[in-house]
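Thread: "does anyone have the structure for this chain?"

Original post by V.I.:
We have the sequence but no experimental structure in hand. Need at least a predicted one for the grant figures.
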Amino acid sequence: MQKRIRLHLMVLSVVCALVPFLGAGTAAARALDDPDLTRRVAGTPVDKTPAKDDTGPRDPVPGGFASWNALFTEQTRLNGVADRIVSAAESAESAESAEAAEGYGGIVVDPEYHEVRLYWRGQVPRAVQDVIDVGRQTAPVSVLPAAHSRAQLLQEAEKWTEAGQVVGAAPQPDGSGVQLSVAGQDTTPDQLQRPSGATAPITLERGERFDPAYSRQDDIPSYYAGGRTWNKQTGSGCTSGFAVWDKYGSPGYLTAAHCGNLWNQFYDGGGTGSAANYMGPVTWRVSHRDAAIVQANATADVFDGNSSASSSNRVVALWKAYVGNFVCNSGASLGEYCLIKVTETGWSGTYTNGQYVKHMVRAKSSVGGCAVAHGDSGGPVYSYTNWYDEVAAQGITSAISKPVYCGGLDGGRVIVFSRAWDVALEFGAYVMVH
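Reply from O.Q.:
Generated one for you, tokens below.
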């Protein structure tokens, strides 16, 4: 059985990622699960048999955890608490409470800390405090002071990006200011002219340029996420993302908008020379989210392992990614890599192709390694659930920065991805899950 999860869209340009979550597997803490976002459908592909893989990530386990299972179980427990706190904070803001609108500064959910860290400016509203108190029955929650609200910092980050002096900007997760991505290795803060209304402190991440991540290898229907794709009109190679139904019920898969324009024809890794490899056309596209839908026969599975692997995992949920979380990129070029930690959410920036994106997620290899390679664009970003053969969709790979050796590939240690949850919402689409 599969379920439909409805989402909205926000895109950027590099690699894919997916968002909020409904638990899967065992009795670990669950995130928010809105029944209005899920629909069950019958049907299991009869045209191929999945090569099930229950070994989990191959990368070294970080943070002193005994296994990746232990790490993702802890992360799931903490994210479930964080989801409810953030929902309460957003509800308080929408109610136009003055203290709430100026209060929420950010949140960090790092499994290596074994706690949720909430940053708040001023007094925490009673409704939010009640949710915190309930959350503390499941996991430790620290409430720390924030100098600025996240709403203010998001506005200022967009002002910095639109001013053209930086290649990207995002709120600091602790509410202390705005982090700016600049191309120059020697750029200093005093060389930048503040946009009108931007008053928060800034810090610089130097030597950044965000290239769209163009370029296991010959999938067949029903298509999995993580497979090689080719655009017949442009010749560019990308990666297939999570399977979806569009707002009219047509099946397809998510990919990056920079991988193709509307009605461009996509083929699988077998190449554009044979009609047997034809997947379908681009039918939906939003540039500022760097997201698109290719209409095709796709299903709720994702390739794992290296770039030539045929093994796969089941997509069972849609989760949010928080600062401090570990996520996996599984692109057709690099293969699966899970030593990636989220550093910023709400990131806005301009790619080297001139494409402007906003409300993206920025992450980097926690060990300075290769997090993404060219050709991974459009591919899936996910976390494992309590089981090694089940994953939760979180994003769509969009862009790459900070070049690093990738075993002969053109790659980088920084990845930008759009949140699958936001993308689905914008498209009025449903993410397929088992």
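V.I.: this helps a lot. DSSP finds five helices and 29 strands in the chain.
O.Q.: and The mean pLDDT is 87.
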